[in-house]
Amino acid sequence: MDIWRSGSFNVCVPVFIPRKDGAQEPNTIYVRFPLPYKLGEDRFPGNVDEKLRAEVATYIWLQEKSPDVPIPILHGFGLPDGQCFTHPSSAPLFSRTIGTMRRTALSLLGFPVPCNYVKRRLYNPFKSGYVVISEAKGQQLHSTWEIHRHDKSYRSRLFRGLARISLSLNKTPLPRIASLTLDTDGVILLSNRPLNLHFHKLEDEGIPSGIPRQRTYGSVEPYLSDFLSFQDNRIRFQPNAIHDRKDAEMQIAALTGMRATMHRFIRTEYRDGPFFLTLTDMHGSNIFVDEHWNVQTVIDLEWACSQPVEMQLPPYWLTSCAVDQFTDPESVAELDTLLGEYFDIYAEEEMAQNGSLYQSPIMRHVWQSGSFWYFQAATVPKGMYSLFNSHIQPLFNREHCTKRIFDEVFWWYWGVDVKDVVERKLKDKENYNADLKRAFGVVKSIEDHAE
After folding, report:
1. 307 plus 367 within the same structural domain
2. How far apart (Å, rounded) are the C-alpha atoms in residues 216 and 130?
3. Distance between CA atoms of residues 350 and 45, nearest Å
4. What is the pLDDT of residues 230-280, one digit of tens each?
5. Max CA-CA distance within the chain?
6. Which of 207, 188, 201 is nearest to 55 (CA)?
7. Where are any strands of DSSP class E within 280-415?
8. DSSP string, 384-438
């Protein structure tokens, strides 16, 4: 059990395979199982299947469209419906031949073509499904982050690797904002709602997203509007979403302000695209580097989805702060300096590859205009209020950040039932506190003391 690797949503079991060349060190592959109890499967059946199909579709798409993006090899996978698929190089010759002939015939006839992974007659016995992947090359960035993050030469190599990955993904525009998925016939489609980790994390807490799995988006505004509605649902359905009446007014006023100011942060020329596949969960634990911080592998692809070009955001974690911890000018200035380095290197790589600049000026504008903070606030429920109060509201009126008048007026415009919702949430919080005390025996100890 010590060598099992467990993350937020999966557990990885290593399998050691003797090498054919007789070397003592075996090859290592990982069988990766999604954790249904972390993905809201009980409350929202099908979440595990959705995540797994998005993950394998992304692996296969990247192998075909962006082979220079360093990802583990997907050796095979099993789906919750029992289907099993194997990498073509590991499948029997007869099965590979039949699969190739079938794909060729479907292509000639104008039908959707399945992926090149070979469907096996084996039946997957694991209800949650699995993927089999190769071991990631390199070591996790976070293991040496604090040692080298202040060294510009290390940062430069890291930034160059990240820029190359982004530029490779941007070579293939996509028609909609969505996640890739693998359908029951093995065809990769851009037809799933655009997943990020907050979908299943909040749904696991019993908070409905309100976004059906088949919903995709052709423009930016409805996408962001649905995300804000998801945050509305957090207020409505999370038992401890608010602490008291003042907190309720502050959070709800911020959500109302997010809707009112959306137009300020979306440029009309990018409203309807282009959209590009984006790895939305890129951070120090999912980036593997060599000893000099050259990027070797990126992992955890299940939260990749096509995003508007303005929402391909630069990394916020360069100063070791969470996205909602930039609450003073000094921390923002430090991030600004590091992002300046990142933008410069991105522009160098973009010019070298494409002969012109497109994405790097957009990223600079998103950062300098404050859109960076807006897009983070809209899509990261945990940080919405802090980001709105610290970075978005001051763009319009700096005094409102410190005065109650904004909250006292604006919260009324969240919905016609807002007063009833807040009254209900105050009762929910009382019940939540009582349940929490009961669960930890606090009530009983008080009663015993009274006796």
Report:
1. yes
2. 26
3. 43
4. 999 999 999 999 999 999 999 999 999 999 999 999 999 999 999 999 999
5. 84
6. 188
7. 287-289, 295-298, 304-308
8. HHHHIIIIIHHHH-SGGGT-THHHHHHGGGG-TTHHHHHHHHHHHHHHHHHHHHH
Q: Cα dihedral angle (302, 304, 348, 375), rounded to 10 degrees?
A: -130
What's residue 444's pLDDT?
A: 53
Does residue 75 belong to any structural domain of this protein?
yes
Q: Which of 135, 165, 183 is the last residue of a domain?
A: 135
> Do residues 391 and 255 both lie within one domain?
yes
* 386 Cβ contact partners less than 8 Å away, ≥ 6 residues apart: 324, 327
Closest CA to 286 of 72, 111, 91, 131: 72
Ordered DSSP codes for 132-156: EEEPPSSEEGGGTHHHHTT-HHHHH
* Predicted pLDDT at 445: 44
Angle at 127 between CA 126 and CA 129, to 5 degrees: 65
User: Is the CB of residue 264 less than 8 Å from the CB of residue 373?
Assistant: no
Whether 181 is covered by a domain: the verdict is no
Pair (21, 54) in one structural domain: yes
Do 430 and 403 sit in the same domain of this protein?
A: no
Same domain, 333 and 446: no
Q: What are the pLDDT digits (tens) for 329-365?
A: 999 999 999 999 999 999 999 999 999 999 999 999 9
The reply to whether 333 and 360 lie within a common domain is: yes
- Does residue 89 form part of some domain? yes
Query: Angle of helix 220-237 relative to helix 245-261, nearest 10 degrees?
Result: 170
Q: What is the DSSP letter of 269?
A: G
Cα distances (angstroms) measured from residue 438 to each of 241, 293, 416, 429, 431: 19, 50, 35, 14, 10
Task: Count the helix, strand and coil residues of the chain and give each as a percent rounded to the nearest 5.
Answer: 50, 15, 35
Structural contact between residues 52 and 213, judged by C-beta atoms closer than 8 angstroms: no
- The tally of domains found in the chain comes to 3
Within a domain: 212 = no
Q: Is 22 left (phi over 0), alpha (psi -120 to 50) or beta?
A: left
Distance of CA 422 to the CA centre of its chain: 30
The structure tokens listed for 337 are 């300096």
pLDDT per position as a tens digit, 417-449? 999 999 999 999 999 999 988 888 876 544 444
For residues 115-138, average pLDDT = 90
Asked if 392 and 250 sit in the same domain, the reply is yes
Tokens for 213? 């799995």
Q: What is the DSSP letter of 283?
A: S
Structural domain span for residue 52: 5-135
